[in-house]
């Protein structure tokens, strides 16, 4: 049997490059707490992502949780259930109530025509997701947020390096959260960041990732510990040197999938949106069971039998999780529910070979034949 192909494979620098990057840590013995590597990566990322300010974190989830806390939100937050567990959990763990808005069937981001109907006097923010690297309708979200005086925090975990109308994606909204998890386009092993506009918010955020410590003898926030350490930052510095090349390789894989699958009845392939500079982070396909010969689950199982691991991203929806049993009505997000049963995210990483892409597509097309 062929070697197992997983849905993603972490990008890594050469062993020697990483060793050179961490060698100075043996001189300084400064391993964490915003050291030299941390500061260096922060400066480089601010520039690469073209954002006004950025703060690094131990992971993307803590970045989101603490960004919500630093924003001082209350009551209800409008979000979508078509996302990774982290988005919804970060809201709930802050003692806030998620209010689930449906997605649009075009690009699977929040359906902006349904947001205003969910706003009431307890609503304090909108937390949309740039899902699969697709950019939300940021203009309409900004208009609504202004009109009702709501904060906007984007879950931009999938949009590392994405630009919209020539601006870094993290320039939109009050803050955006990135994930640098091993499985993402850019990784620091585990890691994350928040980009933001307001300096006062930035100070709050900085304090909250370090126990709420303001000064040597002053602790004035109930913070957590979510600092990125020097080994993570060093990995980031190395990976950032190669990121443009990596994204270019992803583009080749993405385009090969498009060539193979775009004219197949019953399979909807992703597309690059207008005015968007993409990162080719995911390749989700959506099956139409009347037109295609097999269901999503049959294709998933067939790939698995051939040692190829795809993912049902995003199934199940977060508003159907067991931990929320009976709390939310999934009937209020029918499009998200429908797509979650038909979507399959195919393997996509820079080292995936073109022959493997062709083979994956062949297996998909031959399911049930
Ligand atoms: C990966 C991811 C996160 C969480 O990031 P971690 O770095 O794994 O904590 C949050 N939201 C979305 C949509 C993600 O895909």
Q: Overview of this structure, please?
A:
This protein is of the alpha/beta class. It folds into two domains: 15-237, Aspartate Aminotransferase, domain 2 (3-Layer(aba) Sandwich), CATH 3.40.640.10; 243-367, Alpha-Beta Complex (Aspartate Aminotransferase, domain 1). The protein is 35% helix and 15% strand. It has eleven helices and 15 strands. Strand 10 (213-215) and strand 11 (218-219) form a beta hairpin. The chain starts with 14 loop residues before the first helix and ends with a helix. The model has no long low-confidence stretch (mean pLDDT 97). Bound molecules: pyridoxal-5'-phosphate. Pyridoxal-5'-phosphate (PLP) binds next to helix 4 and helix 5.
């Amino acid at each position: 049997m062929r070697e197992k192909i997983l849905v993603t494979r972490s990008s890594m620098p050469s062993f020697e490059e990483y060793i050179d990057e961490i060698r100075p840590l043996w001189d300084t013995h400064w391993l964490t707490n915003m050291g030299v590597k941390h500061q260096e990566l922060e400066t480089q990322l601010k520039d690469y992502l073209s954002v006004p300010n950025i703060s690094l974190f131990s992971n993307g989830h803590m970045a989101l949780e603490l960004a919500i806390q630093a924003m001082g939100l209350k009551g209800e937050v409008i979000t979508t259930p078509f996302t990774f567990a982290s988005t919804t959990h970060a809201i709930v763990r802050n003692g806030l109530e998620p209010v689930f808005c449906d997605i649009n069937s075009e690009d699977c981001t929040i359906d902006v025509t349904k947001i205003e109907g969910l706003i009431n006097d307890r609503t304090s923010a909108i937390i949309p997701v740039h899902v699969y690297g697709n950019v939300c309708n940021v203009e309409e979200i900004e208009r609504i947020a202004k009109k009702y005086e709501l904060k906007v925090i984007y879950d931009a975990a999938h949009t590392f390096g994405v630009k919209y109308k020539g601006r870094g994606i993290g320039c939109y909204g009050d803050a955006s959260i990135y994930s640098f998890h091993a499985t993402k386009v850019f990784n620091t092993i585990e890691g994350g960041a928040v980009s933001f506009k307001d300096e006062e918010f930035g100070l709050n955020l900085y304090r909250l990732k370090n126990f709420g410590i303001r000064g040597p003898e002053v602790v004035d926030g109930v913070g957590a510990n979510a600092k990125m350490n020097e080994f993570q930052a060093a990995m980031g510095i190395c990976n950032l040197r190669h990121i443009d090349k990596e994204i270019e390789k992803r583009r080749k894989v993405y385009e090969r999938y498009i060539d193979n699958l775009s004219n197949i009845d019953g399979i909807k392939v992703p597309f690059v949106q207008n005015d968007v500079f993409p990162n080719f982070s995911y390749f989700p396909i959506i099956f139409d069971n009347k037109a295609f010969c097999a269901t999503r689950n049959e294709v998933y199982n067939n790939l698995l039998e051939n040692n190829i691991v795809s993912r049902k991203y995003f199934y199940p929806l977060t508003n159907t999780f067991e931990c929320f049993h009976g709390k939310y009505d999934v009937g209020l997000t029918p499009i998200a529910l429908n797509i979650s049963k038909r979507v399959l995210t195919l393997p996509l990483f820079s080292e995936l070979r073109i022959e493997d892409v062709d083979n994956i597509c062949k297996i998909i097309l031959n399911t049930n034949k």
